[in-house]
């Protein structure tokens, strides 16, 4: 019976694991709902920001503001958004693979690159592979709010202006559905203003304190918001990915339990048969 | 009589979307009122109190940085933070004010001083709005 006891112990341990994965799935599902709601809530702001920006940018020359001006693409900076915690399937691997591929692609094009990363997982990935990280932020996921985006954006803008970075990309997981997310590399700097034809951007607006001054403060806001949106998308994607991963883990556990139970029953039966044979054999010998 | 559509949004949510009769905003170059038929207008906002009127009822909102765009009968406000009188915790605002005052009293360096001043201003506006429930 020694063999069957081992199997029993294994069944118990798999069951425990299954309970954990099931609970994690339920937790991510409910958190995902909240994250999705937060994403939707940001949408009206996004629409209005774009319309105001389009309105203003239509009347300003591109060279007017450093955040708008094209300067070629010799020095490029990445902001990679990953999660702090694992157990979410290929979520972090996917994004890091894509980021590293892009990094080498740009490198062979003769660009200088600097890396910024959000999330413990991405940071660890890069550190293990000896990439230099300029700046990292961790501990955001779970209690993300707008001020995180402000901190990150102001750091990026400052570096963009002082260190003369030519382009900044944000690489993040875009939330498609709870089951799927796609890795996106989005250029946030220089800002591509939304196209508005001058006709609709009616010329008789009054600006306080003047169109240039409004634009000056609006452009950093736009970057801030782009970062905020990337963080939000990434958060929702992470929860979606975790939900899916935990769901398949629970299913695998179920399968494994079924297999082990069968094995246990077989072992038990074999033991009974063996005992019976021994008794019969003993009785035969006494005759 | 004509109405204005007032919409106030922050990155985190839409705070207000209502038909109103009049809006008063804290523009960067001074407070301004908007009535239906206002000329197209775009301004930055400072930290301050935004109020609007529906019929005879006045409502107040504390806004922090942002823009107001007046176009036809639409008033759109983009703010970093916008809190209605009901949302503000008066007690916390008072604490913030005390904290900011303490920072300012310590005669800090320039950057700290500015930060302190901003949070003091925010706290004062919050308190001002909170009592107008």
Which short descriptors sum up this protein?
heterodimer; A: 287 residues; alpha/beta; Pyruvate Kinase, Chain: A, domain 1; 5-stranded mixed beta sheet; 6 helices; 14% strand; elongated; B: 133 residues; alpha+beta; ATP Synthase, domain 1; 2 domains; 8-stranded mixed beta sheet; 47% strand
Task: Describe the structure in your own words.
The complex is a heterodimer of chains A (287) and B (133). Chain A has helices at 2-41, 43-57, 91-108, 120-128, 146-162, 211-286, and strands spanning 75-81, 112-118, 133-137, 167-175, 181-189, 206-208. Chain A is an alpha/beta fold. Chain A has a single domain (25-245), classed as Pyruvate Kinase, Chain: A, domain 1 (3-Layer(aba) Sandwich), CATH 3.40.1380. In chain A, strand 1 (75-81), helix 3 and strand 2 form a beta-alpha-beta unit. In chain A, helix 5 (146-162) packs across helix 6. The mean pLDDT of chain A is 86. Chain B has 133 residues and is of the alpha+beta class. Chain B folds into two domains: 4-84, Sandwich (ATP Synthase, domain 1), CATH 2.60.15; 90-130. In chain B, strand 3 (22-27) and strand 4 (30-34) form a beta hairpin. The two termini of chain B are 27 Å apart. Classes of the chains: A alpha/beta (287), B alpha+beta (133). The A-B interface holds A 38, 41-42, 44-45, 48-49, 51-52, 55-56, 145-146, 149, 202, 204-209, 211, 213-214, 217-218, 221, 225, 228 and B 7, 9-14, 27-29, 39-44, 67, 69, 71, 76, 78, 80. Strand 6 (206-208) of chain A pairs parallel with strand 5 of chain B, so a sheet runs across the interface.
Number of helices of chain B: 2
Mean pLDDT of chain B equals 84
State the order of secondary-structure elements of chain A, H for helix, E for strand: HHEHEHEHEEEH
Whole-angstrom Rg of chain B: 16 Å
Q: What is the CATH homology-level superfamily of the largest domain in chain B?
A: F0F1 ATP synthase delta/epsilon subunit, N-terminal
Oligomer designation: heterodimer
Overall body shape of chain B: elongated
Query: Count of helices of chain A?
Result: 6
Order of helices and strands of chain B: EEEEEEEEHH
Mean pLDDT of chain A: 86
Largest sheet of chain B: 8 strands, mixed
Q: In CATH's first tier, which class of chain A applies?
A: Alpha Beta
Fraction of residues in helix of chain A: 55-70%
Number of strands of chain A: 6
- How many domains make up the 3D coordinates of chain A? 1
Proper CATH architecture of the largest domain in chain B = Sandwich
Give the strand content of chain B.
Answer: over 45%
- Indicate the overall shape of chain A: elongated
**Alpha-beta content class of chain B:** alpha+beta
What is the CATH C level class of the largest domain in chain B, in words? Mainly Beta
């Amino acid at each position: 019976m020694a063999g069957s006891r081992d199997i029993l112990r294994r069944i118990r341990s798999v069951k425990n694991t299954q309970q954990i994965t099931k609970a994690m799935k339920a937790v991510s599902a409910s958190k995902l709902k909240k994250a999705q709601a937060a994403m939707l809530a940001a949408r009206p702001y996004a629409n209005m920001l774009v319309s105001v920006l389009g309105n203003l940018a239509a009347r300003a020359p591109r060279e007017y503001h450093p955040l708008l001006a094209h300067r070629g693409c010799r020095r490029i900076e990445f902001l990679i958004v990953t999660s702090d915690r694992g157990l979410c399937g290929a979520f972090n691997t996917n994004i890091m693979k894509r980021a590293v591929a892009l990094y080498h692609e740009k490198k062979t094009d003769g660009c200088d690159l600097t890396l910024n990363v959000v999330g413990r997982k991405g940071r660890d990935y890069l550190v293990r592979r000896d990439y230099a990280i300029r700046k990292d932020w961790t501990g955001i996921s779970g209690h993300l709010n707008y001020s995180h985006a402000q901190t990150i954006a102001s750091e990026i803008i400052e570096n963009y202006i002082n260190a003369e970075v030519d382009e900044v990309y944000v690489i993040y997981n875009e939330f498609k559905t709870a089951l799927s997310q796609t890795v996106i590399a989005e250029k946030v700097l220089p800002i591509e203003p939304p196209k508005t034809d001058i006709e609709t951007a009616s010329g008789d607006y009054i600006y306080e304190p003047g169109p240039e001054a409004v634009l000056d403060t609006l452009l950093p806001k736009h970057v801030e918001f782009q970062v905020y949106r990337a963080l939000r998308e990434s958060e929702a994607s992470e929860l979606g990915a975790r939900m899916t991963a935990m769901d398949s883990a629970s299913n695998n556990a179920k399968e494994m339990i079924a297999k082990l139970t069968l094995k246990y029953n077989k072992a038990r039966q074999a033991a009974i048969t063996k005992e019976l044979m021994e008794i019969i054999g003993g009785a035969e010998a006494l005759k | 009589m004509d109405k204005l559509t007032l919409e106030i949004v922050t990155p985190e949510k839409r705070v207000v979307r209502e038909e109103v009769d009049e809006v008063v905003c804290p523009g960067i170059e001074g407070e301004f009122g908007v009535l239906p038929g206002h000329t197209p207008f775009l301004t930055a906002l400072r930290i301050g109190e935004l109020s609007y009127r529906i019929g005879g009822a006045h409502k107040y909102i504390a806004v922090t940085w942002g823009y107001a765009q007046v176009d036809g009968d639409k008033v759109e406000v983009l703010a970093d933070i916008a809190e209605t009188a009901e949302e503000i915790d008066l007690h916390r605002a008072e604490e913030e004010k005390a904290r900011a005052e303490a920072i300012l009293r310590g005669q800090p360096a320039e950057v700290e001083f500015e930060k302190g001043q901003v949070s003091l201003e925010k706290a004062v506006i919050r308190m001002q709005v909170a009592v107008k429930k």
